[in-house]
Amino acid sequence: MSSRTELFHRKFRRNNPYVTQGRNLAAIVMRILAVLPTLTMWTVTAAKADLPLTGQAVQGGLLIGTAPMTSHVTLDGEQLETDGAGRFLIGFHRDDSQAQLLQIQSDDGSTQAHIITPEARDWDIQRIDGLAQKYVTPPAKTLARITSDRDAVQKARQPTLRSTQLFETGFRWPVSGPVTGVYGSQRILNGTPRQPHYGIDIAAPKGTNVIVSAPGIVTMAMDLYYTGWTVIIDHGLGLSSTYSHLDGVSVQAGDTVLKDAVIGVVGSTGRSTGAHLDWRVNLGTKRLDPKIVAQVLNADELQKAE
Ligand SMILES: [Zn+2]
């Protein structure tokens, strides 16, 4: 941690009423009790629908389902985690196109089956030729760092919250500003396709507060080669959000963050060309479009979908 960031970190943490230091079970239980009224509303909304699913079955999209409380839910034979109200999430990767079989087996022996096929989307593909090779291939001495960063990020996106979820109160955009990069876009540099861009880039002045999308547990607050200061939050049921290129962070791994907590400020750390926030959402290893997740998990949108 640079001394500047450390100073920021110390100063900020002391005055941040939204952040609980350490992983405190009592704090988590309090959060869950605080959101119980909205939980009831959600259950009613889902029960009215013909299919127990709301959301968007598109590439990068997200569905929320509700099953009878004690049922066994599988997607293509793999068990899905459910919360205390029987809710589960289904996410679609950028390139998912196959039909998937959702099965809900109730205690009384009845089974519901649904075939879900994500709708295809068009992606913004940009070809750039004639680039100097040093901009295409990272320097050899950074490869070990890049590999260990990737492992740490993968680990931080593994679910830590079991059978619970903390996005009852919605899922918000972490900063406001012009969108300068969208989910799914891809560059082809000197004929070699790069990994698609899985974040939404939002331009904002350096120092702008970054607000957590939903309550959760911090699983990473680290300075990485590509993404600079990076915070990852676990929201439960496999859903995590990632905030990159921060100038400073105000949380650390293990912290519990409440609704609207400030987790750091916008910067340009890591491989970045200007102050912006790169905002990502994962469901397990599936990379989702944050814009769609915010639409689907927004309580107002859910009510409209009735
Ligand atoms: Zn980005």
How is this structure best described in words?
With 306 residues, the chain is α+β, with helices and mostly antiparallel strands. It folds into 2 domains: 3-32 and 122-304, Glucose Permease (Domain IIA); 45-116, Immunoglobulin-like (Sandwich), CATH 2.60.40.3110. It has helices spanning 3-14, 25-34, 36-48, 143-156, 290-297, 299-304; strands spanning 19-20, 53-55, 62-66, 72-75, 78-79, 87-91, 100-105, 111-116, 125-128, 179-181, 186-189, 192-193, 200-203, 209-211, 216-224, 228-236, 239-249, 256-257, 262-266, 276-283, 286-288. Strand 11 and strand 12 form a beta hairpin. The structure holds zinc ion.
What attributes characterize this protein structure?
Immunoglobulin-like; disordered C terminus; 21% helix; 6 helices; Glucose Permease (Domain IIA); 306 residues; alpha+beta; binds zinc ion; four-stranded antiparallel sheet; eleven-stranded antiparallel sheet; 2 domains; single chain
Bound ligands: zinc ion
Return the structural class.
alpha+beta
Helical fraction equals 10-25%
Q: Could you give the count of β-strands?
A: 21
What is the CATH superfamily of the largest domain? Answer: Glucose Permease (Domain IIA)
Unreliably modeled segments: 1-15, 25-49, 301-306
CATH fold assignment of the largest domain: Glucose Permease (Domain IIA)
Number of structural domains: 2
Largest sheet: 11 strands, antiparallel
Shape-level CATH architecture of the largest domain: Distorted Sandwich
